[in-house]
Amino acid sequence: MTMEPVRSKRRPVLIALAIAVVLAVVASVVVISLTTMAAQQRRESLALLKDERLTALVDARGKVQPAVNKYLAAYKKARNAPASREEAEKSSATERDEFQQTINSARTALAEVQASNTAGAEAVTVTGAVDLLGDSYQAYLDSMEGLVESYAQFEGLFREDAGCSGLFVGSKAANLRERQTLLGQAAVPCREAVNQLKQSKNISYVEFARTLDNEIAQLESHAETTAKSEENYNEFVRLKDEFVKKADDAAARNASEEELLKIADEVKAFNTRIKNNRSEFDFAAKRYLNGVKEMPTLVEEVFSKNVAAQIKHHDTVIPLRVQVLKDAIDAELAE
Q1: CB 167 within 8 A of CB 141
Q2: Using CA atoms in the order 206, 212, 216, 221, what is the torsion angle rounded to 10 degrees?
Q3: How far is 280 from 262, CA to CA, in rounded Å?
Q4: pTM for the full model?
Q5: Phi, psi angles (nearest 5°) of residue 15
Q6: Helices 93-116 & 54-62, crossing angle to 10 degrees?
Q7: What residues contact 281, with CB distance under 8 A and at least 6 apart?
Q8: Would you give the DSSP letter of residue 63?
Q9: Using CA atoms, how far apart are residues 173 and 167, in angstroms rounded to an integer?
Q10: d(CA 163, CA 318)
Q11: How many CB atoms lie within 10 A of CB 64?
Q12: What is the DSSP letter of 305?
């Protein structure tokens, strides 16, 4: 009788172990290959970000300011022709479109920089640098866009066809009460125009509008004080005549010393009222005139001082943040 060979129980176990080892080796090779591929892709992405995307970003920003200046000059030239706001906007439409295209290109360049940073949470330094640069760059673009969008409102604020042209009412008034009334009437459309300017995306316009709003309130307050003082003065002239008559009557009647002292005290109090009224008038009148005289300077400093400082800030911060990002990229590539 033929005996069947006895199958070893250890053989299946050894086969299973061999297969497991092979699979583990294959898996580790795949992981190493994927990791290497991801690292290589990350290096290529960083190189692209530094060499091309950042360069394009800087170049795009460099075209924004000239486009702004070109539009502002074109609009102001048309307005001074002279032309209405609508006519000036039509005349400078080409420059406005060119500016908008420049802004759109700059935003596209920023989006490409942000898209190039495809690293995970481990690349904290580069990601943080991209975010900071993005915030500053976007703030600059919004500011310049606001400068252009709200320029027609700002530039025409004190023109004859605009809201604040009626503020300077001094020459139109017969007296100070009429000046106060005319100023109050002129302040209504001016405040409407100012409130519109407060909605601008450019902080220089917004701060100017807030300051102008406060200046209008101060003018109204000083106008009321001077008008009231003028009315008080007219009343004082009448009261003075009454005091003179009262003193003359007392002297003619050979009034008592007590009555004469009482009249003297009344005159003293009256003179104090006149003195205080004059002080209030002088203070308010001086502030009113200074407010009117300083208004052109307030307008001029929006560009000569505030916008210039704003641009200088961006010109300082953005290049620094570009360099910080480049340094972060170099540091990651060196790892």
Answers
A1: no
A2: 100
A3: 27
A4: 0.82
A5: -65, -45
A6: 160
A7: 225, 226, 229, 230, 233
A8: T
A9: 12
A10: 37
A11: 20
A12: I
Is 312 a residue whose pLDDT tops 80? yes
**CA-CA distances (angstroms) from residue 172 to 176, 177, 226?**
10, 12, 16
Query: Which tokens sit at 168?
Result: 């300077």
Classified as helix, coil or strand, 123 is coil
* Main-chain phi, psi angles of 117, to 5 degrees: -90, 85
Contacts of 40 (CB under 8 A, 6+ apart): none
pLDDT digits (tens, 9 = 90+) for 75-115: 999 999 999 999 999 999 999 999 999 999 999 999 999 98
Look-up of token digits 């008592």 = 256
**pLDDT one-digit tens code per residue, 249-291:** 988 888 888 988 898 898 899 999 999 999 999 999 999 999 9
d(CA 277, CA 176): 15
AA identity, residue 255: A
d(CA 315, CA 325): 16
For residues 214 and 169, give the distance between their C-alpha atoms in angstroms, rounded to a whole number: 18
Torsion from C-alpha of 35, 37, 40, 42, nearest 10 degrees:
-70
Which DSSP category does 165 fall into? T
Scanning the chain, the segments in alpha helix (DSSP H) are 10-48, 54-62, 64-79, 85-91, 93-116, 124-149, 151-155, 176-197, 203-252, 257-301, 308-334
Any idea what DSSP says for residue 201? S
For 41, the token pair is 């892709």
CA 289 to mean position of chain CA atoms: 28
Identity at 178, one-letter amino acid code:
E
For the chain, the C-alpha Rg in angstroms (whole number) is: 39
| The two three-digit tokens of residue 247, written as one number | 């003193």
